[in-house]
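Help needed: design a sequence for this.
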């Protein structure tokens, strides 16, 4: 829509061959993969929007930090192929029996305050498992019953563009992109510390007055390729990790 840190998958090279750049590049010539994320949305008890976004971002980090995703791990080849091409994430929804079928497939379920998101190893763009392919992308519009509290400034914050109107599914994928960019820029020790702490993070909409400063301050910025919902090149998320703040002049 949407790991052993001591032996990480090599980070993709920076722009101009960015996995998020809107213009075609070498990454478009590689076989294309997608990281599936499925959010559980039961009719009687849907998750709150902010918790779903935060849980999706943590799910991406859990996948990247899992030992099966690196070295000779069972998912390592798929993760490498995915990171060599465009970085695509798609969020679908499930409930009831659909969710139970999704849970039976290889993957990891990450539980937030009231959200559940299952992340799966990357699959070919046109090769989704049947039980995931049949799930709907639409219907992931979620709300926050109450405004989220202020983000903890000592912990990572994924700042959303205040000028963009994204569905919850799209925003979940973008938050996952931001978390992934932060992960790539951290040292091995910083990745380990973040993982061992349980990947604490917040997702918040930036104050419009701060947005330009956030996008020009040297922090990782997600620029969407424009496949769905928003225009190509739109800045969607800034990944504000304390370790990356300290690394900036």
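Sure. Designed sequence:
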């Amino acid at each position: 829509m949407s790991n052993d840190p001591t032996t990480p998958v090599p980070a993709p090279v920076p722009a101009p061959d960015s996995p998020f750049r809107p213009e075609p590049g070498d990454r478009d010539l590689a076989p294309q993969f997608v990281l599936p994320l499925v959010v559980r949305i039961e009719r009687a008890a849907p998750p709150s929007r902010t918790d779903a976004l935060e849980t999706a971002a943590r799910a991406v980090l859990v996948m990247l930090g899992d030992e099966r995703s690196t070295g000779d791990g069972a998912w390592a080849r798929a993760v490498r192929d995915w990171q060599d091409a465009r970085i695509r994430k798609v969020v679908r929804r499930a409930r009831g029996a659909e969710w139970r079928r999704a849970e039976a497939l290889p993957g990891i379920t990450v539980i937030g305050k009231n959200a559940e998101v299952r992340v799966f190893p990357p699959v070919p763009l046109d090769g989704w498992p049947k039980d995931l392919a049949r799930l709907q992308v639409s219907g992931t519009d979620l709300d926050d019953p109450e405004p989220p509290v202020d983000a903890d400034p000592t912990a990572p914050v994924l700042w959303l563009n205040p000028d963009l109107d994204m569905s919850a599914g799209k925003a979940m994928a973008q938050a996952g992109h931001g978390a992934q960019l932060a992960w790539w820029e951290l040292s091995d020790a910083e990745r380990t510390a973040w993982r061992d702490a349980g990947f604490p993070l917040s997702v918040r909409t930036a104050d419009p007055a701060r947005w330009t400063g956030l996008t020009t301050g040297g922090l990782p910025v997600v620029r969407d390729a424009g496949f769905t919902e928003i225009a190509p090149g739109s800045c969607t998320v800034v990944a504000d990790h304390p370790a990356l703040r300290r690394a900036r002049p």
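The chain is about 30% helix and 15% strand.
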